[in-house]
Amino acid sequence: MITLNVTRRGTLLKVLRTARRRGKRVVFTNGCFDLLHLGHIRLLEKAKRLGDILLVGLNSDSSVRKLKGPHRPVNPERARAEVLASLKAVDHVLLFSEETPERLIRQIRPDVLVKGGDWEKKEVVGKAFIESYGGKVYLFPLVKRYSTTGLLHAGQKRTQKRKSLRHY
User: How far is 20 from 31, CA to CA, in rounded Å?
Assistant: First the structure.
């Protein structure tokens, strides 16, 4: 079994204080990360290159249901957290149950916030707060043909096609 950096909020805040005293730069991104795909991997790798510590805020199962609907997430939060924590680029994973990471961002005060290009910069949660103390916000372009929703729809279409072929 791998050692996970799925961290409790209080513990993480202590870790970040120590890291900052040592001059480390904290990068934050967040999302559902329901079915990890190439777009996620590239975003996380780019985010990690912007600092020393990459913290991923992970929407809890209840938060994902509120955002994506009753059939999501596909994978439970513990599995999603373990997969993320196993990635080389990711230093810490922190679950949050709110619909947005605003409160978490205010607590951790990252130096850098990273989001995918499906966001307009002005709509990024926490942008104004981070910029108020000199932090930076980066948006990275999406990787074409890679999104969790798109992958789920493609899988459903293939399944429906196979079922319809069986009836002949």
Answer: 24
